[in-house]
Amino acid sequence: MLQIDCPFCGPRAEIEFRCAGETHIQRPGPLNPKLPEADDARWGESLCTRTNPKGEHLERWIHSAGCRRWFNVARDTVTHRIRVVYPITDPAPEPEA
Questions:
Q1: Whole-Å CA distances, 41 to 26, 44, 49
Q2: Contact between residue 97 and residue 83 where contact means Cβ atoms under 8 Å apart
């Protein structure tokens, strides 16, 4: 079983958590200078298209059976090794060399 180090509660079993998928997603719209136009195709892509890498993936998790707080995890999708757990407000960590 995977052991996840909740930044608020400490190490806990995977069963206490829920993964909410990819994090650091850029939504289109007037508040995003990188993607200002929000036509139907762009919104569809923003809502439905996600990366599915073989290797490190940045994910958003919630400690659903504990403190109920959100945080981000850099996890390898092949080995399930968690490289870093970091607050939801922090930028993405640099990739491992």
A1: 15, 5, 11
A2: no
Cα–Cα distance measured from residue 93 to residue 49, given in angstroms and rounded to the nearest whole number: 22
Question: Residue 14's closest CA among 56, 58, 55, 75?
Answer: 75
* Domain boundary assignment for the chain: 3-87
CATH of domain 3-87: 3.30.2270.10
The 10s digit of each residue's pLDDT in 40-70 is 887 788 788 888 889 999 999 999 999 999 9
pLDDT digits (tens, 9 = 90+) for 62-92: 999 999 999 999 999 999 999 999 999 999 9
